[in-house]
Amino acid sequence: MADFDLVVIGSGPAGEWGAVQASLAGKRVAVVEREPVLGGTAANTGTLPSKTLRETALHLSGFKARGLYSVDATLRHEATVSDFLFRERRVKQMERERIHKNLQRHGVTLFQGAGSFADAHTVAVKRDGAEVARLTAGTVLIATGSSPYRPPLYPFGDPRVHDSDEILDITTLPRTLVVVGGGVIGCEYACMFAALGIPVTLVEVKNELLSFLDAEVGQVLRDCMETLGVRLRLGQTVESAHVPESHEEPIRLKLSTGEVLEADQVLVASGRTSNTAGLGIEALGVKQGKRGQIEVGLAYQTAVPHIYAVGDVIGFPALASTSMEQARIAVEHAFGPGKRTLTPILPYGIYTIPEVSMAGDTEESLRARSVPYVVGRATFETNPRGQIIGERQGLLKLLFHRDDLKLLGVHVLGEQASELVHVGLTALLTGSTAQLFVETCFNYPTLSEAYKAATYDALDQVRVSST
Asked: Is 71 exposed, middle or buried (0-12, 13-18, 19+ CB in 10 A)?
């Protein structure tokens, strides 16, 4: 029996940084990880691997050269799986090593095995079915993440049918691909494979992609995806899936419209389900949602006060960035004053081709609240740095309050969108107005200058409307 102040179950971003935060507060901390490698979904099957594959697809396809040289660069159809996955596997290994060193440096004790509650303050660690350790703690942090939801319609045992984790283990690149699910993961992978010149069809039950985006930006992204070669089937569902034994025959998916899609491989991206099976939390009174999401309060406390849950296991927003902050807040609450809360405005990054990122309000959310606003736009095509790098699709859209010109929303589509959004995010969090961008001297030439251009565009509209 080993006694700790905090036992963390899971070693993804939430688990890692929750453990480090507690260690910095002088607490004895243990991390239990069921997999033989550290890092959770973010390091091994999600955030970092998928973004690495995106960069690889852009490189192998010559995609960026198209705008730079005003030609349709020849796609590398001869690209192999080894080409596609080499960098992804290297990045995963480096991240695993970084996490291990970080936890060791902070004196965190690691246990490899599946953690489950023996009682409210005791976590049993099992490996290959045998108990290898029993840990007691005053506080337990559940950070077990999530796994792809697998609809029973699809035979996932077939090597041609993938979920969003298994797609990283493909042995051959698909000749044709159907992606089922038009959420963030589905859209990202659809773009990656389409960039390689692979015919991709994306099926989404809703009538629009990524409905949380500003409608204008969402439409631009949809147009870009179709230009990239992604065929969209919106407002449709898959009614049946025929996966023949012979790999020479195509997979056939019948849609709700009656259309039959044929494909070499299928990727099912139908959301995720929380990793709570086997934890034994039901007997403790910890409450869960439909797909296993653990219900928590403001400080990420469960119904059992000394048990906290953070990250993907609690559901939305299920981002690596927010998971880290949630863990820090939970640990501060458990061992300190606990007054900090998650920032009210979060950035969202979508690594489609092109990238999309946003923070704050959309036009739709402002109209729903009857907030008067003005829009400022700047395209990367007219930005000097955008012209240099051949960026034709980029757009920066700023939303200001019409009366006092306070910044209300930031929306970026194009090269480095997930980086550029932070300029606007900082302005949002500090309650800044258009004057901030007017007075800021930006490096020249940079894409960041688009903030000044978009601000002047908004000011011009205010001037015109007042005359």
From this structure: exposed
